[in-house]
Structures are given as structure tokens and as C-alpha cells.
């Protein structure tokens, strides 16, 4: 049985949330051992380029450790994909970023998509990442922010929904967005359900992209076992 690691790139992800994601992915891919864990030290949250820099060393260490422990692939559970290229250079197993996966899937299924991130710290990070994926500005024409910290999101979920509705409506009215990407893995399924009921366009979760990539990786691994 292949093992795949989902790596949370901040130290503050609650154990119950890690377990929830691990159980969810395991239920989708019952023939694969899925493990979700956080980096052991580093930034509490991933909200800017500064936190990305702080997370670099522990992220690399955990990816290298995963290969040594026999994992077949790693997925970074953060839309900003911290040190993704460095991780890929450090190991021979596949390493996939949630952000890159989300943006490429959005380009495949939607003509115009808006990313909604948590605060202005993510605007520059995501702008660079989208460009590095080779995606045009006409496909993802805007990145908007709800101006909240992750800590605030965790303590006031009702406000998160209201801010997402307001910012999402602006994206639809001003950029003519056909889909929205919720730009933080802390924005859970509850957000997606409520926004889908409010808007008549697809609402894409980073977790959905992660699941799609997990499925692709598992398929590639199975093909490798069968033909090589």
C-alpha cells in the first residue's frame, strides 16, 4: 500500500483538524495510507512572505523525512506553496503544492476565476505563484482579500462568511468571475456550502484540489507499479 503525506506548513493546525483531513482523504482513497501532520516548529500561521521564509527549513526537513520513511509522495497543505521548488530538488518522490494545483485546476474548468485570500499579506505571494504557473491574468484576473487573520477566522466564523459574501460579490460584479477559489485551507467545507447556496457559481476549496491531486498521484503510482 502506498503512503502519501499531507504536510501542514504551520505549527498551529489543531490536532482535530489534522485528524479530520486525514480521515476525509482516507475515506476517498481507502487503498492508500494517508498521513496528515504539521511541521514541528516554525510560524504559527502562514499569512505572508515573512512566514514563508520562517517555514522554509522545517518544511524541507519534513519532506526529506517523508522520503526516508517510505512515503510515495507529499502534498503541501497550503495555498502559498512555501519552498515548493526547493522541496522538489531535495527528494526524488513527487511533491505537489495545493496552490499550484488549485490554480491549474481552476484554469482547466473556469474561464475567469477570482482568488479570495485572508489578508493583504497573501496578495503578492499569490500573484507571483499564479504567474509561475503560466496562467494568464485573463484566467485569474483578480486576487481579493477579506482582511482577516487566521486567528480571527477561527474565532469568528460568522464574520468570515459575511466577508466572503461581500468580497465574492464584488469579484462577480467587477471582474465577471465565473468561479471563486477560497485561498486558505482554514476556510472549511462549511464556507463552501454556505457560499454555494448564496452564489450561483462554483466555489472551489483548496482541499478539493488537494484531493484531485492525491487521486492523480495515486493513479501515477499504480501505473508505475504496473508497467515499470
Explain what this protein looks like in three dimensions.
- The protein is an alpha/beta fold.
- Helices cover 53% and strands 15% of the residues.
- The protein folds into two domains: 3-97 and 208-227, Rossmann fold (3-Layer(aba) Sandwich); 100-206, Rossmann fold (3-Layer(aba) Sandwich), CATH 3.40.50.
- The protein has helices spanning 15-28, 49-68, 84-90, 98-109, 121-132, 150-155, 157-174, 189-198, 206-227, and strands at residues 3-8, 33-38, 73-76, 95-97, 113-117, 142-145, 179-182, 203-205.
- The strands form two sheets. It has a four-stranded parallel beta sheet with strand order 2-1-3-4, sandwiched between helices. A four-stranded parallel beta sheet has the order 6-5-7-8, with helices on both faces.
- α4 (98-109) crosses α9 (206-227) and α7 crosses α8 (189-198).
- The mean pLDDT is 84.
Amino acid at each position: 500500500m502506498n503512503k502519501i503525506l499531507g504536510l501542514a506548513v504551520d505549527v498551529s493546525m489543531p490536532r482535530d483538524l489534522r485528524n479530520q483531513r486525514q480521515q476525509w482523504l482516507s475515506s476517498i482513497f481507502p487503498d492508500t495510507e494517508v498521513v496528515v501532520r504539521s511541521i514541528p516548529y516554525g510560524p504559527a500561521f502562514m499569512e505572508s512572505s515573512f512566514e514563508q521564509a520562517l517555514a522554509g527549513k522545517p518544511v524541507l526537513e519534513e519532506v526529506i523525512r517523508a522520503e526516508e520513511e517510505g512515503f510515495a509522495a507529499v502534498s503541501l497543505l497550503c495555498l502559498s506553496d512555501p519552498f515548493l521548488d526547493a522541496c522538489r530538488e531535495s527528494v526524488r518522490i513527487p511533491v505537489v503544492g495545493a496552490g499550484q494545483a488549485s490554480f491549474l485546476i481552476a484554469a482547466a474548468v473556469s474561464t475567469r476565476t477570482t482568488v479570495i485570500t485572508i489578508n493583504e499579506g497573501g496578495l503578492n505571494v499569490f500573484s507571483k505563484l499564479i504567474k509561475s504557473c503560466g496562467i494568464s491574468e485573463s484566467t485569474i484576473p483578480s486576487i481579493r482579500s477579506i482582511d482577516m487573520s487566521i486567528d480571527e477566522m477561527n474565532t469568528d466564523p460568522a464574520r468570515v462568511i459575511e466577508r466572503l459574501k461581500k468580497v465574492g460579490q464584488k469579484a462577480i460584479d467587477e471582474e465577471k468571475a465565473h468561479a471563486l477559489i477560497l485561498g486558505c485551507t482554514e476556510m472549511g467545507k462549511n464556507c463552501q456550502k454556505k457560499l454555494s447556496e448564496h452564489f450561483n457559481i462554483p466555489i472551489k476549496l483548496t482541499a478539493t484540489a488537494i484531493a484531485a491531486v492525491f487521486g492523480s498521484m495515486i493513479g501515477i503510482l499504480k501505473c508505475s507499479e504496473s508497467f515499470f
